[in-house]
Amino acid sequence: MNLYDSKVAPNPRRVRIFLAEKGIEIPLVPIDIGKHEHRTDEYLADINQLGQVPVLELDDGSHISETMAICRYFEEIQPAPPLFGTDAKDKALVEMWNRRVEINLMGTVAAGFRHTSEFFAELEDQVPAWGELNKAKAPARFDWLDSVLADREFVAGDHYTVADITALCGVDFAKVIGLRVGDDRPNLARWHGAVSARPSAKA
What we know:
This protein is α+β, with helices and mostly antiparallel strands. The chain has two domains: 76 residues, Glutaredoxin; 115 residues, Glutathione S-transferase Yfyf (Class Pi), Chain A, domain 2 (Up-down Bundle). It is built from seven helices and four strands; from the N terminus they run βαβαββααααα. Strand 1, helix 1 and strand 2 form a beta-alpha-beta unit. Helix 4 packs antiparallel against helix 5. The longest helix has 27 residues. 37% of the residues are buried.
């Protein structure tokens, strides 16, 4: 089993943190997206037709792509600790909050970066105006998450879940568009300090 990985991209980091929380270690295959290694003919033909990371390669030679699909695979083979929730309601709430953070925070930051950065000039059909619009919207996403965390310890409630992993990677990734956690958002700062202190955050 191997994980095709990139140290500079937020989605592979989500999987690495998830695995660290589970205490699972698998070999990492580094992919340099700056050198377009994820767009080579071999990678597109054999690993991922969409040219993305992360990708999990199973022992039978098959591949699972998409961050949450990979994480769900490991949740099934090793349920403890539960990172997608416990009972039916909890699982639904974790799914809801993870999707909200994924779409409203990570999606906004990613669009702001991908459509304005020189790094993606050869990888993306850039629409600079769309990128600038998303960069302008991103601070409000931080405000929203700060308000969410006003009455709870973690994003989806009182325990750490995959929604916190997505939020941590989204918040940290926002540095690429000049947005950082500060004292002006005390709830977000408190949560960010706590989840960043977990050993898994260094994965």
